[in-house]
Amino acid sequence: xxxxxxxxxxxxxxxxxxxxxxxxxxxxxxxxxxxxxxxxxxxxxxxxxxxxxxxxxxxxxxxxxxxxxxxxxxxxxxxxxxxxxxxxxxxxxxxxxxxxxxxxxxxxxxxxxxxxxxxxxxxxxxxxxxxxxxxxxxxxxxxxxxxxxxxxxxxxxxxxxxxxxxxxxxxxxxxxxxxxxxxxxxxxxxxxxxxxxxxxxxxxxxxxxxxxxxxxxxxxxxxxxxxxxxxxxxxxxxxxxxxxxxxxxxxxxxxxxxxxxxxxxxxxxxxxxxxxxx
Length: 278
What we know:
Blueprint lengths: L1 E3 L4 H4 L4 H8 E2 L7 E7 L4 E7 L5 E2 L5 H4 L8 E7 L4 E5 L2 E5 L4 E4 L6 E5 L8 E7 L7 E3 L7 E3 L8 E7 L10 E7 L11 E2 L3 E8 L7 E7 L2 E7 L3 E5 L6 E4 L4 E8 L8 E2 L7
Parallel strand pairs: 1-3
Antiparallel strand pairs: 2-20, 3-4, 4-11, 5-10, 6-9, 6-11, 7-8, 7-10, 9-12, 13-14, 14-15, 15-22, 16-23, 17-20, 17-22, 18-19, 18-21
């Protein structure tokens, strides 16, 4: 498991491109037959890319040196969205089939969790985030039709988009995880604008559905001294609470956002006027 530590914003201002990527960029998540895991000290979220091939993959049981618990979800919850081919997740003997862009919430206390693909030639790709949890909520599958969609932005500002809220109080109870998928309308390239911070929550951005030649410029940093990460398909940007997070792409893309922190109020954002950005 890769470990990322929290940085003070004044420290982040001093980093070059390599330093920014070492701290806030997660490389392509999916390799057939493997599970990748990155632990960030920003609200202690674990970022996962799970791509089972011919055989199932299981959540690791030897995590005491990372989580201090006897199994991974002893005091954690987990949310995931499948961005690959059809597959399934087995949770303590209960199997849930997941097609492309279907999500699943796994509550605190789930002990035996495994992931499978229906076809190794077209494997499932489970993008997952896990955060500490104080209570146990039921296992729940969420389809994109059930995900409380809302359309924001406008074509004239290049940011028309539909936000599908999978893990959200309007859909299901969770301890702290919020998770959803944003699709941009044709011709729009800003995934959110104007940018914002939410000092009460961290966020991860998983970019996908991108052509090989497409890149997204993910803008981060404090509003008075912004930076950027160049993102490619199936990579993740870690956004600490003090950082803006906004992106613009050179082609079509989608992204999955996940938040953890003090509250679950999706609208709790501090917007930054474009004229105040530096």
